[in-house]
């Protein structure tokens, strides 16, 4: 038993070392990616369920690595969050979203607001509202064209400071939504004080919508609650006709998901906007 323990200890340290090496390599890769401008944004349309029109789009970051190819965010955002790179990446995303809007506006494209994801640690920067304001000004983009997707977890460390920052952000004229709603520690007494416009129903609930009565009850309840708080409800991860029908029946305002479109590169999003594409 002793020898086994010793072997598994060595195995464990080797494995830990490998993981540390991989993480360090990834961290260095992300540093270089920022310097070499290797990040790209893809866009996924958000569709109004009543009119069938595109009313928004979410910007989703990818890393176009010369060595690794197109790396999805789940493979680098967590490391970026742990290594303080997330703020620089978040700033890049915000700037790129506004630059893209400016380019489309200049080309006469009928644009819709872009929703940008905000990591919790970006929100501990109390100057976030100044960053948003100066970025919008730099690109001469109206605040109504920008929405921030916040998660419930961002208010955990210092709720009062977070709520104050949210109000300052609101005062800039931008929109705000709560992302992945229902998966965090939803403290409803905070929700009431969040100056947000929209609740995004997490895709884990959408997935079970047609097969799982509990998921359906949760989705129905979230839509009702959103409406009674004067907020819009958007369901993400909508893939099937059945999910779409149920959401429409429950009065959900917007949908986002593969059913309508996967996240696509800038040119493909532009084509959808120019066609005025709807359902
Ligand atoms: P999220 O904010 O919940 O974004 C939605 C994710 O669901 C996206 O994955 C999207 O491609 C995927 N999705 C959309 N529709 C469907 C569908 O119908 N079915 C399924 N199965 N999936 C769908 P993606 O692009 O891989 O992004 C994953 C996560 O990475 C995001 O989850 C977000 O938390 C994070 N992320 C992406 N971009 C950024 C960013 O710029 N900043 C930060 N902080 N996080 C980001
Ligand atoms: Ca999101
Ligand atoms: Ca989400
Ligand atoms: Ca998510």
UniProtKB/TrEMBL annotation:
Keyword Kinase carried by entry: no
UniProt keyword annotations, A-Z: Phosphoprotein
Source domain of life: Bacteria
Signal peptide: none
Record carries keyword Nucleotide-binding: no
Ranges for domain EAL: 23-277
The protein's name: EAL domain-containing protein
UniProt source species: Massilia soli
Lineage: Bacteria, Pseudomonadati, Pseudomonadota, Betaproteobacteria, Burkholderiales
Shown segment, full-protein numbering: 328 to 606 of 740
């Amino acid at each position: 038993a002793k020898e086994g323990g010793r072997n598994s200890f060595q195995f464990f340290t080797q494995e830990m070392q490998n993981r540390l090496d991989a993480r360090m390599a990834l961290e260095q890769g992300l540093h270089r990616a920022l310097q070499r401008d290797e990040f790209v944004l893809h866009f996924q349309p958000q569709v109004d369920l009543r009119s069938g029109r595109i009313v928004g789009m979410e910007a989703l970051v990818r890393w176009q690595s010369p060595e690794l190819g197109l790396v999805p965010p789940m493979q680098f955002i967590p490391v970026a969050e742990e290594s303080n790179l997330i703020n620089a990446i978040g700033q890049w995303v915000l700037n790129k979203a506004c630059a893209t809007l400016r380019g489309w506006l200049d080309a006469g494209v009928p644009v819709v607001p872009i929703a940008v994801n905000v990591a919790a640690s970006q929100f501990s920067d109390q100057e976030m509202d100044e960053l948003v304001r100066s970025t919008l000004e730099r690109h001469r983009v109206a605040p109504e064209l920008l929405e921030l997707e916040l998660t419930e977890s961002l208010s955990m460390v210092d709720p009062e400071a977070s709520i104050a920052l949210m109000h300052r952000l609101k005062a800039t004229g931008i929109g705000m939504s709560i992302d992945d709603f229902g998966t965090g520690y939803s403290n409803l007494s905070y929700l009431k004080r969040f100056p947000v416009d929209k609740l995004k129903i997490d895709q884990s609930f959408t997935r079970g919508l047609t097969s799982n009565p509990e998921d359906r009850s949760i989705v129905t309840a979230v839509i009702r609650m959103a409406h009674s708080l004067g907020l819009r409800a958007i369901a993400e991860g909508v893939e099937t006709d059945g999910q779409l029908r149920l959401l429409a029946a429950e009065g959900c305002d917007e949908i986002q998901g593969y059913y309508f479109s996967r996240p696509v590169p800038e040119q493909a999003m532009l084509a959808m906007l120019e066609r005025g594409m709807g359902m």
